[in-house]
Amino acid sequence: MSVRRLAEPTVQPASFAFNAENAAWADLAIAKYPEGRQQSAVIPLLMRAQEQEGWVSKAAIETIADMLGMPYIRVLEVATFYTQYQLKPVGTKAHVQVCGTTPCMVRGAGELMDVCRSKIHHDQFHTNESGTLSWEEVECLGACVNAPMVMVFKDTYEDLTPERLAEIIDEFEAGNPPQPGPQTDRFYSAPASGFTSLTDEQAIQDNAREWREKRKQAWSADAATATGETATPPSQAARPKTDAPETNPAIKSPSPEKASPAAESAESVEAPAGNVAEANKAEPSVEGEAKQRQSGADKEGDQGLKAPELHKGEPVGADAKGEAASDASATSAGKDQAGNPDADAAGKPGSKDGEAS
User: Fold this and answer.
1) Which end of the chain has fewer CB atoms < 10 Å from its terminal CB, N or C?
2) Mean pLDDT of the chain
């Protein structure tokens, strides 16, 4: 992007002021923003100044900065950043912006620029001798399907040929701006070859008339509902159609009435009776016979595997052995691992065998 600078001092006006109409508009634009945020109106105010004078001058930048309580440099930054602001004088009757982006370029935008060079000025941003016309190349103007195109102030002229653009420039110079839009028989942005759908105009009109009647009836119904004349039930069209109670339109859930616990217990269904013995039998197809299963607690010796909290008062830990543990140790004393009398124990002093010996 090229550097954008203000116009030379020789063309700068000494002062700027909004006219009465635009001054009233500017006050309303500033009032839209809360206290302390009036600087947000800088873009629309700059655009309004350009529409009034044709371009944004240094005096306009300083005047708008004073209106919004902004430093001059802040408003200058905005004006020089956005290419929508013209920083030099442009044509008083027409400033032609030629789109040079790819769709327009492949459709003949280069030829349109040649027309501008020959009828206005060889260089961009320069006015003709009378100062009424100027031109520039811009990026996409948003009507690619109608390429090539140009924009003059706020209006677009599409489906152009070099000959038609030359005529448009002459019409602006004469003070008779032409009708904007496509310059062929195309209907806005419809296919250039004509409509390919909705070709029956009478059917379109009938459908439109029917649609307007339905909308009129709907508006009347809404107005009657607002005044309390009728009560239209809510639509169920968007509710899912399933058999689940949660989505059944006939069931209003949750209910505003709450049942008491006693009533809920009375309406509750009791659990079915079961035969524990039958339920605990092994399946014959698995084990060959319908025998009763045995739990681990019924096996001999499994009582010692119970968790400590299940002993219910029985000694836990080392004291759990009790006297039985002492008897077992006494019985095993004097025997070796095979159960034979221990020789060392038999030879100890004080034993019967020792006395015998």
Assistant:
1) N
2) 79
